[in-house]
Amino acid sequence: MTRKKLMAANWKMHKTPDQAREFVASFLPLISGHHRDEIVLCPSFISIPATIEALQGSRVDTGAQDVCWEQHGAFTGEVSPAMLRAAGCTHVIIGHSERRQFFGETDDSVNRKLRAVLPTGLKPIVCVGEVLEEREAGVTEDVLRRQCSLAFREISAGGAAPIVVAYEPVWAIGTGKTATPELAGEAHRLIRHQAAQAFGEDVANRMRILYGGSVKPGNAALLMSHQDIDGALVGGASLEPKSFAAIVNY
Ligand code: PGA
Fold first, then answer.
1. Phi first, then psi: what are they for 93, rounded to 5°?
2. What is the per-residue pLDDT across 135-194, written as a single tens digit (0 to 9) for each?
3. Is residue 155 part of a domain?
4. DSSP 236
5. Pairing state of beta strands 208-212 and 164-167?
6. Least enclosed by CB within 10 Å: which of 37, 79, 88, 205?
7. Which residue segment(s) compose the domain that 166 sits in?
8. Nearest atom within ligand 1 for CA of residue 10
9. Residue 2: its pLDDT value, please?
10. Distance (Å, whole) CA 86 – CA 102
């Protein structure tokens, strides 16, 4: 089964609209010969329109970093899946560990967001991963099983096809410590097994599972050569056009 890789930039709380435009102007020429993978930039909400406009006519997509579980209503400060679609987004990150750690995201809210997003046609990138204490305590598999099974709850096999999962061991995010391809591969196989239990083998075999956590130009090729790693979710190294282009062109 060959799965088209997805290379995603998570800009987190960086880049104003002008800075997003500047990035795109430098980035596009660097990937002009690239036709292999799906590429997506995920700016902050405020820089989404500028990014989409700058990317027009290119093969690069735009995604959001979070989303509400309702389509409209009295939810001050939130942005709905329908609004992201209307703005021109194609992807959305759900359940990033920083949302879980700092903003009260739970397995339950991840599931609600996922169920709200799927009918709109946005491609969700659902983040899972263990913190250092959990890895050291030997409970990584339990954590991944729990995060996946709760995220996938009440979603039909028919509706699950667009789901992308990003395995991001929290101890590797922004730390310069990268999981080895073998360690990531092990986690990815477990996640695929959970997907198979929830949606069946066929959907699970097609599901893309990305790796995230200190992906850099220097380690991208090794990670991407692993058969169970279907792309990357890149934070710090996606902020510079040259380094994200080097990762995309691994
Ligand atoms: P990092 O972040 O590449 O800076 O480690 C990855 C992420 O948080 O998605």
1. -80, 135
2. 999 999 999 999 999 999 999 999 999 999 999 999 999 998 899 999 999 999 999 999
3. yes
4. G
5. parallel
6. 205
7. 6-248
8. 9
9. 85
10. 28
Cα separation of 51 and 63, whole Å?
10
Whether residue 11 is predicted with pLDDT greater than 80 in this model: the reply is yes
Q: Is 174 in the pocket of ligand 1 (CB under 6 A)?
A: yes
96 catalytic? Reply is yes
Is the C-beta atom of 235 inside 6 A of ligand 1? Answer: yes
List pLDDT tens digits, range 29-55.
999 999 999 999 999 999 999 999 999
Q: Report the CATH number at residue 181.
A: 3.20.20.70
pLDDT of 1 higher than 90: no
Tell me the β-bridge partners of 230. none
Which of 233, 238, 244, 247 gets mutated to test ligand 1 (max ligand atoms within 8 A of its CB)? 233
Q: Which of 105, 126, 234 to mutate to test the pocket of ligand 1 (most atoms within 8 A of CB)?
A: 234
- Those residues whose C-beta lies under 8 Å from the C-beta of residue 92, and which sit 6 or more positions away, are 42, 63, 64, 65, 66, 67, 81, 84, 117, 122, 123, 124, 125
In the structure encoding, which two tokens stand for residue 122, read together? 């946005």
Domain count, the chain: 1
Q: Is the pTM of this model over 0.90?
A: yes
193 is catalytic: no
- Catalytic residue (choose from 38, 91, 96, 105): 96
The enclosing H or E element of 127 equals: strand 123-128
**What is the band of 18 on the pLDDT scale with cuts at 50, 70, 90?**
very high
> Does residue 117 lie in a domain region?
yes
Q: Cα separations (Å) of 105 from 112, 123, 169, 202, 207?
A: 11, 19, 16, 30, 23
Does the residue 1 lie in any domain?
Answer: no
